[in-house]
Amino acid sequence: MSLQSSGRQQREARGANARAEGQQQQQEEERREVTLFREYLRIRTVHPEPDYDSAIAFLERVAIDLDLPLKKYELEPSLIAVVITWEGSNPALRSVLLNSHTDVVPAFQEHWQYDPFEAVKDAEGNIYGRGAQDMKSVGIQYVEAIRRLRDEGKRFPRTLHLLFVPDEEVGGFRGMSLFVKSPEFKALNVGFVLDEGLANPTDAYTVFYGERSCWWVTVKCTGHPGHGSRFITNTAAEKLQKIINAFLGFREKEKARLDCSACMTLGDVTTVNLTMVHGGVQYNVVPAELAASFDIRVPPAVDLQAFEQQLESWCREAGDGVTYEFAQKGMDQSVTSTSESDPWWGAFSAVCRDMNLDVKTEIFPAATDSRYLREIGLPAIGFSPMNRTPILLHDHNEFVSEAVFLRGIDVYAGILPALASVPAVPAEQ
Ligand SMILES: CSCC[C@H](NC=O)C(=O)O
Ligand SMILES: [Zn+2]
Ligand SMILES: [Zn+2]
């Protein structure tokens, strides 16, 4: 038997130590907000088989504890949206929707310092778990901010709805996409939405007012087949080479544009990634068909018609028999107003200023459920209040510190009253 303990044993030992420390600290002083957050992290709502039943049971307990009504809406068998509502003093006004998704992406245990579903808190107070940033923290921060405001006896004119949706991490097609089209959603009478954002490693907080369109495209190249020992003309591979060069050449240019400007962010440029290649039969057979799939993200400022013409011309120039097909083609480019004269943004930004939060507005680089809400004309802001935190969503060792998590509750306890007190906007008068 080796004297050296395996990586797994070391991890387990570290986990046990941290757990022991965590438990000791918890017995002494852990705040209930943190305990609730860690409890939520331990629920395995992880794809491909998320345990939504346990998440719903957890939310039912949260609602009872908050003394607020909870409603469940079945979007598809076993896919349920949960809404917890704090009614405003003037429920005729449009409501504020606080959205979060309950599902999380898979975690590869062997790359984690601690078990991704144990919610270990280390000696520095960092809480590790899949969903720590994306976005179980946010769901609990909404809950705890509301609890605090209610405990203080506050009440605001506008209704606040806490929405917990499934399926976001696999596109929201069976989640938010269905929910926004339902009469039950319409009945929520939503006027403004807060949804997820990203951590920011600096002192600043990033706030997202739009997102890039997601295009997933497969380019199919056909050509002459034949024996692998010959110079066959007009092959699928030569066409594929031109396609890859054109797409990745454009990628280089966009990357250079991002790298050479300090004020540009990922959301301002187009990214192109070759994510799959398909085709071929055996070593000595020149294939009649090869295909490449690309994940392309296009900023809202780009003319989508012109961009598609560009793709079309790259395919034409690659030769005959080159076609493309979309698996995903986001066409909505709505962005939410960040004009100080906009009543919602005005309220949000004013309260951030009052709290001395340094806010940076950006376009979200990937896709969130906000796109379904913006598409039906609702203003939506992506905001996960995590500054001084590395961006670790979907990454190994996802964590947020206890201090940042708790500060985020203070931040919402400032923002929610401002949003729920926005005076009647013109459409409501
Ligand atoms: C367009 S469906 C995919 C949605 C996914 N959202 C989070 O990572 C993304 O790839 O951005
Ligand atoms: Zn998310
Ligand atoms: Zn995610």
UniProtKB/TrEMBL annotation:
Superkingdom to which the source organism belongs: Eukaryota
Region (Disordered): 1-31
Listed GO biological process terms: amino acid metabolic process
Top-level EC class as recorded in UniProt: hydrolase
Leader peptide range in chain numbering: none
Entry cofactors: Zn(2+)
Keyword Hydrolase tagged: yes
GO molecular function: aminoacylase activity; metal ion binding
A Pfam family of this chain: Peptidase_M20
Annotated positions binding Zn(2+) 2: 134, 169, 394
Residues at the catalytic site: 103, 168 (proton acceptor)
Compositional bias segments (type: Low complexity): 15-26
EC number(s) from the headed UniProt entry: 3.5.1.14
Subcellular localization, as worded in the UniProt entry: Cytoplasm
Similarity comment text for this entry: Belongs to the peptidase M20A family.
Protein's UniProt name: N-acyl-aliphatic-L-amino acid amidohydrolase
Gene: ACY1
